[in-house]
Write a structure and sequence with these properties.
343 residues; mainly beta; Methylamine Dehydrogenase, Chain H; five-stranded antiparallel β-sheet; 1 helix; 23 strands; 7% helix; 35% strand
């Protein structure tokens, strides 16, 4: 009985194999595949096959002209519209860097446009820049104005009366220690730059705001950040808020008086136009959760009513900056100091 069962089972198992072999014999033979010659690729050229999309890192309009806007993209250069957004023209494509950190127009002459390259929404896959560019004709032509090794420029601030005075907020490439981090200033329209605020090689400038009624007053946010292969190390003793009252020549760190006492991360700032004493600060904290075995502070938004001397914890709402590397910018309505937007 066992012998019959074993033989029957062997025949049953062999039937599919025999059928598959017969099917393969009946199929026509495949012609040999041609060998690819690598030299053929030498004639190929990259071409744009679009459309593509990416993050918008900066938007700037001309006061009094609701039709003209400039937009900076994370990896798509600068675009301009003169018909309120119906049509957009790429005006930066001929430049060697297409990652934009921030752009700004001179308040005294809207034809003067500055572009700081290198997206400042820092993650491991974000494109770097190669410094700062200037246009004197509304984006028709551009000149590279230095700061080649800053990596990422998070903010460009222009003096309201003198367009030759410009500040660049350099975050650095963030892949390790780097001396070209901090605030740079030019007084000759970009022909030369001087570092006016440097904290340490691991800490860069994350934001910079100028008092709209007094250009000698500036407030800077600094962020200690290093990108590793497995993620980012955000925060440390270098992060903080600094203030200058002499046009950026000297700075002092704002400590205590309501600000987080423990190490924190990224800082975003806004000085309100209708009341320059009213300052907003969006600060990345650990929300009270220990970080690397150390305690952290809790909170998200701080405000000051005396130009940054004293601060009040205004909100713990994590939605104001849910993903700090991207969503950490504050914009205040020009004619209402209490209406703020968090981007």
């Amino acid at each position: 009985m066992r012998t019959v069962t074993t033989v029957t089972l062997a025949v049953v198992l062999a039937l599919p194999l025999t059928a598959e072999a017969q099917r393969r014999q009946q199929q026509p033979a495949q012609p040999p595949q041609p060998q690819l010659d690598p030299s053929r690729y030498g004639q190929l050229r990259y071409r744009h096959i679009g459309p593509v999309g990416n993050r918008i890192t900066s938007v700037y309009g001309i006061p009094g002209d609701p039709n003209t806007y400039y937009v900076g993209a994370a990896s798509g250069g600068v675009w301009k519209t003169t018909d309120a957004g119906l049509n957009w023209d790429p005006v930066f494509d001929a430049q060697t860097a297409q990652s934009v950190g921030h752009l700004a127009l001179a308040p005294s002459n809207p034809n003067i446009v500055w572009v700081g390259t290198g997206e400042a929404h820092t993650r491991s896959h974000i494109s770097l820049g190669n410094g700062i560019y200037q246009s004197l004709d509304g984006g028709k032509t551009w000149t590279h104005m230095g700061l080649e090794t800053t990596g990422r420029i998070a903010r460009v601030v222009i003096h309201p009366q003198n367009p030759d005075i410009v500040f660049a907020c350099s975050q650095g490439h963030s892949y390790g220690p780097q001396p070209e981090r901090g605030v740079y200033r030019t007084s000759d329209g970009g022909r030369s730059w001087s570092p006016v605020l440097h904290v340490d090689p691991n800490t860069g400038c994350s934001d910079l705001a100028m008092d709209p009624t007094n250009p000698n007053i500036l407030i800077a946010g600094f962020w200690q950040i290093e990108i590793r292969t497995w993620g980012r190390e955000s925060g440390g003793p270098g992060s903080g808020i600094f203030k200058s009252t002499d046009g950026g020549t000297t700075w002092r760190r704002l400590r205590g008086n309501g600000l987080p006492a423990r190490d924190h991360g990224k800082v975003a700032l806004a000085i309100t136009r209708s009341n320059p004493n009213h300052v907003y600060a969006l600060i990345e904290t650990g929300d009270g959760v220990p970080w690397h075995g150390r305690p952290t502070d809790s909170g998200e938004l701080w405000t000051s009513m005396d130009g940054g001397e004293r601060w009040t914890l205004t909100s713990h709402d994590r939605q104001l900056a849910g993903r700090t590397q991207y969503y950490s910018r504050v914009v205040v309505q020009p004619d209402d100091e209490n209406e703020a937007y968090f981007l």
